[in-house]
């Protein structure tokens, strides 16, 4: 009502403006908020934000907003410089409201991002669990780990392929070396190479990324050395194909059709090409062991390969295959933290259903 | 008889491929068009575009490439027909470099049919790297991102672009999405600048974009081949998507038939083994 | 030394990036960005490594007169022709862009080679989905039977003809189950089990009308959406949480140097 009256009188309404250092950031940013009367919202056509570095100085326009916002983050601020802000609100071309900050706002850098406290707490608990189980694993060598059929089948697959006198094709997917599934895949590749060297079989690895190719070459070589057959290692069997998704799928399909491998491993991160590869492998009668953390591709692998490592089973592979006590310890720790998380999720779901948002807010990091 | 049924469990995959081929090719060749009732969300998109006054400027973003062409190209073509018929001005750009020529070719071809002039009725800006940065900066000033169009003609030499400084002049963004670029259009284009958005998405991506529609952050989402066919129906053209409805239905039924046949064979075989 | 230095680099950079997540203050705040830039620069150069590997491998094949030598020749020729063509069009076209409309590269290579090849490879997927679905959806036990029925319902729910076809498809499937259970019951001597089998067969027959001809005839699209949004999503999220936890454990193993298969 007051606003309409002011408008009628052609007067400009006051705006209460506050500016402060944007919290938990790397500096260079000031947040400005202003009160917006609900009666304005429909009228506002633009809001101008002005800035000056001293109260008396002429300020200049830094941004124009074309919707009735009530917050703006100024990311062009310099650290440790005081700033004064002025907000002007227009309806069409008529100035309807104006306001200034009362005191200076100064941007600084922070040493801790408080919004990520929940992540830090979980990380600490997780690390403590992992370290505890790693320590325990050093003294107690008999940590139990359940049987994973897909990993048990590796030796059999390599053996059968050798009996048939055919090579083994190992596909690492479209992941880069910075993706964890690719690193997990390398651990499985090492086992495959080790077994292949024992049986005197050929391992062919067509790669999507050159860095992954180099890592695969090192891994296969290491597997052959460990098996005592470095003489059998052929670097030219691990080569780069292309970095185009469907070009890679076509290339690998061609290799499978021509070389007719007895065993095909699909381990790594996959996209829409997963089934194109797996069905071709199936059509040539190869025994196939797949594994991926790409949830959308898992159904395809389960449908068309003999064994599938589902998500975290793939991450457990290196520990499972090496039976290294330290690695097994981390898996044990992971299981315990998972149980804790299940409880937290259940409590969170109940609290959220009851309208209590403490836990939800604590875990929202943005 | 029992032996025949047992064989059903192990049909040669080439027979399946042949059936899939025929189930797709024959309905496509008949060019028969299934009568479909357009989905409400597609109708909403259509009505929004219908409501734009003549001469309004709309923008199209090409965020897909050849792999998703069957679903998204009909959505693009229908939109261009719809816009040019209504005398809307079209600006085209994109974030998938390898898909942009698909957009440009369709734009040139359809513009010609309606006797539209380059620079006055439509403009092709092309590609600039950096999805979020491009979207944010266009909102401030088009010239910050594109000093000229795809052929380096300065923007101010193009009559249409002389009127355009930022999103204020754009009455609609029509984004064709095969990936996650649509999220950026919403997060930056809508949230910061109130840019009105309609998205055309591949069937796989559609569920990811529906929540934005429920939250009114986009005007509407046209999803998959079905959405494209609905849009064609509303605009009144019988394009590739409408023709695609029958094969899509038939192919689903053929796969279901094979699953059933396979199971008959499997169950008979299992009983025989006992 | 050969092992210690890379392990130390892994440990230090891993730890720094974890810290950077919690410290916005410089120099930690933009550390991830810096590391990413370095990674992009390094990986740009490794493309040369890839090209060297690809060409070397294929030249070797030709020299050896391998039976795949013709393919190798095609690959090498395509590689150099594409490269040369692209460079010529960059120099020749007024826009200095091989993808501009006046470029013959865009006209011929892009339209008549690249687009058809990419679309074809993607389209092959539909053939493979059919053959994989045929093999995979078998009613081996209760779980797989449920999976089969849900798959069929989702497929029906997503296409225009699905609603019309649903009653017939459901009738056929339920009749097959009914016949199967009845056939199984004939071989059973124990009366109670036999009766249970017959009862199950009767339930399937009884469900045909209310489920197939009343409920699904009307509501199959909604039911398909429900299946995808609730049970499917729940399972998917469970797997995703497992993957995230496994990923953290794996990362800690890499940072601590326990997992080091990637190096000698």
Please outline the helices and strands.
The complex is a heterotrimer of chains A (366), B (274) and C (264).
Chain A: H1 2-9, E1 13-14, E2 17-21, E3 30-34, E4 46-52, E5 60-65, E6 71-74, E7 82-91, E8 94-100, E9 105-106, H2 117-139, H3 149-163, E10 168-173, H4 180-199, E11 203-207, H5 210-226, E12 238-240, H6 245-259, E13 263-269, H7 274-283, E14 287-292, H8 298-304, E15 307-310, H9 312-322, H10 325-353, H11 358-363
Parallel strand pairs in A: 1-8, 10-11, 10-13, 11-12, 13-14, 14-15
Antiparallel strand pairs in A: 2-3, 3-6, 4-5, 4-7, 7-8, 7-9
Helix pairs in contact in A: 2-10, 3-4, 4-5, 4-9, 6-7, 9-10
Chain B: H1 2-7, H2 13-30, H3 40-51, E1 57-63, H4 69-85, E2 89-94, H5 100-113, E3 122-127, H6 131-140, H7 142-145, H8 159-162, E4 170-177, H9 181-193, E5 197-201, H10 206-214, E6 220-223, H11 224-235, H12 240-273
Parallel strand pairs in B: 1-2, 1-4, 2-3, 4-5, 5-6
Helix pairs in contact in B: 2-12, 3-11, 4-5, 4-11, 6-9, 11-12
Chain C: H1 4-22, H2 31-63, H3 69-92, H4 104-136, H5 142-157, H6 162-186, H7 191-255
Helix pairs in contact in C: 2-3, 5-6, 5-7, 6-7
Give a verbal description of the structure.
The complex is a heterotrimer of chains A (366), B (274) and C (264). Chain A folds into three domains: 2-106, Immunoglobulins (Immunoglobulin-like, Sandwich), CATH 2.60.40; 120-136 and 331-363, no CATH class; 144-323, 3-Layer(aba) Sandwich (Rossmann fold). Helix content of chain A is 44%, strand content 22%. Chain A has eleven helices and 15 strands. Chain A has helices spanning 2-9, 117-139, 149-163, 180-199, 210-226, 245-259, 274-283, 298-304, 312-322, 325-353, 358-363; strands spanning 13-14, 17-21, 30-34, 46-52, 60-65, 71-74, 82-91, 94-100, 105-106, 168-173, 203-207, 238-240, 263-269, 287-292, 307-310. The model of chain A has no long low-confidence stretch (mean pLDDT 89). Chain B is an alpha/beta fold and 274 residues long. Chain B has a single domain, classed as 3-Layer(aba) Sandwich (Rossmann fold). Chain B contains twelve helices and six strands. The radius of gyration of chain B is 23 Å and the shape is elongated. Chain C is mostly helical and 264 residues long. Chain C folds into three domains: 1-57, no CATH class; 67-136, no CATH class; 140-254, no CATH class. Chain C is built from seven helices and no strands. In chain C, helix 5 packs antiparallel against helix 6 (162-186) and helix 6 packs across helix 7. The mean pLDDT of chain C is 89. Chains in contact: A-B, A-C, B-C. Chains A and C meet through helix 2, helix 4, helix 5, helix 6 and helix 7 of A and helix 1, helix 2, helix 4 and helix 7 of C.
């Amino acid at each position: 009502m007051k606003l309409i009256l002011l408008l009628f009188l052609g007067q400009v309404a006051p705006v209460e403006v506050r500016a402060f250092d944007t919290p938990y950031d790397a500096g260079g940013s000031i947040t400005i908020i202003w009160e917006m009367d609900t009666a304005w919202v429909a009228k506002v056509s633009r809001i101008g934000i002005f800035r000056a570095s001293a109260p008396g100085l002429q300020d200049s326009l830094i941004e124009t907003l074309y919707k009735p916002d009530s917050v703006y983050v100024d990311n062009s601020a310099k650290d440790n410089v005081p700033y004064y802000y002025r907000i002007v609100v227009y309806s069409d071309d008529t100035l309807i409201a104006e306001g200034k900050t009362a005191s200076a706002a100064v941007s600084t850098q922070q040493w801790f991002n408080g919004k990520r406290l929940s992540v830090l707490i979980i990380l600490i608990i997780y690390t403590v669990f992992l370290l505890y189980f790693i320590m325990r694993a050093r003294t107690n060598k008999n940590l139990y780990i359940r049987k994973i059929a897909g990993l048990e089948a590796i030796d059999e697959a390599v053996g059968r392929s050798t009996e048939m006198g055919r090579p083994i094709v190992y596909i690492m997917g479209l992941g880069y070396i910075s993706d964890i599934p690719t690193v997990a895949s390398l651990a499985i590749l090492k086992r495959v190479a080790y077994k292949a060297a024992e049986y005197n079989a050929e391992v062919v690895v067509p790669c999507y990324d050159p860095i992954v190719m180099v890592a695969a070459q090192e891994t296969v070589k290491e597997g052959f050395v460990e098996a005592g057959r470095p003489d059998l290692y052929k670097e030219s069997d691990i080569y780069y194909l292309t970095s185009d998704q469907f070009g890679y799928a076509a290339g690998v399909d061609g290799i499978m059709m021509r070389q007719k491998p007895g065993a095909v491993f699909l381990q790594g991160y996959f996209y829409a090409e997963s089934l194109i590869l797996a069905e071709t492998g199936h059509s040539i009668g190869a025994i196939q062991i797949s594994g991926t953390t790409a949830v959308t591709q898992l159904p395809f692998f389960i449908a068309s390969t003999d064994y599938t490592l589902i998500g975290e089973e793939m991450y457990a592979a290196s520990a499972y295959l090496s039976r290294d006590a330290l690695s097994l310890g981390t898996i044990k720790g992971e299981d315990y933290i998972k149980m804790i998380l299940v409880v937290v999720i259940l409590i969170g779901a109940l609290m959220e259903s009851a309208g209590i948002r403490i836990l939800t807010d604590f875990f929202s990091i943005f | 008889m029992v032996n025949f049924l047992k064989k059903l469990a192990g049909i040669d995959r080439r027979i399946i491929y042949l059936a899939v081929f025929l189930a797709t090719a024959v309905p496509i060749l008949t060019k028969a068009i299934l009568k479909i009732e357009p989905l409400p969300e597609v109708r909403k998109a259509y009505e929004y575009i219908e409501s734009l006054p003549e001469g309004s400027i709309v923008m199209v973003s090409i965020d897909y490439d050849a792999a998703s062409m069957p679903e998204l190209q009909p959505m693009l073509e229908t939109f261009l027909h719809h816009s040019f018929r209504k005398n809307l001005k079209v600006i085209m750009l994109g974030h998938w470099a390898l898909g942009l020529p698909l957009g440009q070719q369709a734009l040139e071809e359809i513009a010609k049919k309606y006797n539209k002039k380059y620079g006055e009725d439509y403009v092709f800006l092309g590609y600039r790297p950096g999805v979020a940065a491009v979207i944010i900066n266009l909102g401030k000033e088009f010239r910050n991102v594109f000093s000229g169009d795809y052929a380096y003609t300065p923007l101010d030499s193009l009559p249409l672009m002389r009127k355009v400084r930022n999103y204020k002049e754009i009455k609609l963004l029509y984004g064709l999405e095969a990936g996650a670029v649509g999220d950026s259009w919403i997060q930056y284009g809508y949230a910061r600048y109130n840019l009105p958005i309609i998205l055309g998405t591949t069937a796989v991506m559609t569920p990811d974009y529906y929540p934005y529609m429920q939250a009114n952050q986009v005007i509407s989402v046209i999803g998959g081949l079905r959405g494209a066919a609905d849009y064609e129906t509303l605009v009144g053209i019988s394009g590739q998507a409408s023709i695609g409805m029958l094969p899509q239905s038939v192919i689903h039924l053929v796969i279901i038939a094979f699953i059933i046949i396979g199971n008959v064979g499997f169950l008979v075989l299992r009983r025989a083994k006992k | 030394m050969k092992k210690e230095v890379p392990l130390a680099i892994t440990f230090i950079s891993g730890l720094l990036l974890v810290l950077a997540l919690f410290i916005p203050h410089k120099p930690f705040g933009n550390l991830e960005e810096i590391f990413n830039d370095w990674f992009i620069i390094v990986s740009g150069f490794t493309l040369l490594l890839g090209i060297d590997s690809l060409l070397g491998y294929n030249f070797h094949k030709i020299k050896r007169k391998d039976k795949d030598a013709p393919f190798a020749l095609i690959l090498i020729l395509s590689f150099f022709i594409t490269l040369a063509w692209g460079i010529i069009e960059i120099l020749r076209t007024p826009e200095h862009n091989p993808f501009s409309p006046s470029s013959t590269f865009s006209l011929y290579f892009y339209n008549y080679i690249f687009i058809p090849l990419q679309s074809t490879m993607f389209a092959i997927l539909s053939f493979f989905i059919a053959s994989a679905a045929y093999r995979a959806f078998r009613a081996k036990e209760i779980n797989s039977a449920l999976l089969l029925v849900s798959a069929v319902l989702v497929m029906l729910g997503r296409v225009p003809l699905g609603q019309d076809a649903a009653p017939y498809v459901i009738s056929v499937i339920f009749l097959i189950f009914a016949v199967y259970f009845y056939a199984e019951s004939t071989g059973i001597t124990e009366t109670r089990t036999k009766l249970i089998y017959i009862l199950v067969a009767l339930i399937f027959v009884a469900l045909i009308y209310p489920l197939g001809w009343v409920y699904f005839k009307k509501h199959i699209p909604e039911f398909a959406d429900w299946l995808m949004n609730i049970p499917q999503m729940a399972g998917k999220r469970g797997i995703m949480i497992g993957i995230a936890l496994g990923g953290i454990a794996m990362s800690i193993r890499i940072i601590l140097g326990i997992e080091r298969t990637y190096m000698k």
